[in-house]
Amino acid sequence: MEPTALYKQVEDYIVRRIQDGSWPPGHRLPSEHELVQQFGMSRMTVNRALRDLVQQGRIVRVAGVGSFVAEDKPQSTLLHIASIGREVRQRGHDYRFVLLATERVAASPDIAVWLGLRAAESVFHSVCLHLENEVPVQLEDRYVNPQVVPGFLERDFNAVPPGDYLVQNVPFDEIEHVVDAVLPTAEQAGHLQIAATEPCLLLTRRTWTRATPVTMVRCLHPSSRYRLGCRFDAVGNQRFG
What we know:
Layout: H1 6-19, H2 32-39, H3 43-56, E1 59-62, E2 66-69, H4 84-90, E3 95-106, H5 109-115, E4 122-132, E5 135-144, H6 162-169, E6 174-182, H7 186-192, E7 200-209, E8 212-222, E9 231-232, E10 238-240
Antiparallel strand pairs: 1-2, 3-4, 4-5, 5-8, 6-7, 7-8, 9-10
């Protein structure tokens, strides 16, 4: 991949902190001077990054005051990307995840199409089981584009699950969510500790950065243990998902 333009490095830094929740709506960004010092770049370069983020609707700038993370705007996706671990802990419950697999595999024809690669081209694959109070609530089956995240398999996922790592470290500018009602395979039912006849909700998500696919993940939830949804106000602003 081509080297990232200097102003894009500043954009990516700010976007990552917005996406991982470190900088919530209304949070005041570092000043232009602070960003110039932090990145060792010219004021013009930092200003270009901030102007782009304003145009994208990610931040607002108030003359003489500073730059702030913008309030949520209407979006066409069903859900924003949320950390299941954070959701579980916010309910006051215990969260744990089990990493079942991390590997490099040859892309099947459908995975290749999903990630914009050639069939049999190398992709990264991870499987993760998420538990709430020791009860499985999600089976995560993920494929990652090595061209975008070349060091994915080198990460230690014992402390941070793959999904959280990607949200925190790989900026995305487009998301697609598709939800289906399905029955689990025998293997999936075994991991989720449910009967193979129990209906499940399958959330399939893809993300892109600058029109390049980053990851495709299938999150399988027993319908009796988990709900998918979101809430909007009367003008379409998403409140939670």
